[in-house]
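**Paired protein data**
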Amino acid sequence: MIRVLVVDDEPLIRAGIRMILTSAEDIEVVAEARDGREAVETARGTAVDVALLDIQMPVMDGLTALAEMGRAAPGVRVLILTTFGERDNVLRALGHGSAGFLLKDSAPQELIHAVRAAAAGNAYLSPAATRHVVDTLASPAATVRAEEARRRLAGLTAREREVLALLGEGLSNADAGARLHMSEATVKTYVSRILTKLDCENRVQAALLARDAGLEPSAG
């Protein structure tokens, strides 16, 4: 069973998340918390595999709690769940070691998929969250990021770029393998190589880099 901690200051939101997650046979909500400080204490004293953290909370916000949790309970994989899709929040979450980022209006099945992905050690960025972040980038800084991203991608092989483009679309290793007619293990090897070349800590950072560079999956 995947043991989950749900953290949100709104009881109705916590109840809704609990209902969705417990509909999956392999997921159990073992604890809830109302703010970031309570979340850190709960994670320290409870056996938890994945924590779902809201960003906007009293006492201690989700991003601060994420950083604290990394020190207090480093084995817990944290997913940031929020209505706020601003890029700065995504980057801060990734910088503090988040396993992923998705919006509260995501489909129930996507929430379950994200928890499973995090528990399996994979990073997850909701395609909806990614599109929202990218679509709101309308500043000169976006051009600078695009140029830097393209520079960093220049050292990738054609095949590595194909794999990275699919990461940018939010595909799992298995789905990317099916698209490229490769085994999941082969895709995993490519992903590890890509992360090393790009100096990215996880696949979500690589996916954002691919989107900054405007990298698109090849047709077919």
Q: What stands out?
A: Strands lie at 2-7, 27-33, 50-53, 77-82, 100-103, 124-125. The chain has a mean pLDDT of 85. The two ends are 37 Å apart (CA to CA). The CA atoms of residues 185 and 191 lie 10 Å apart.
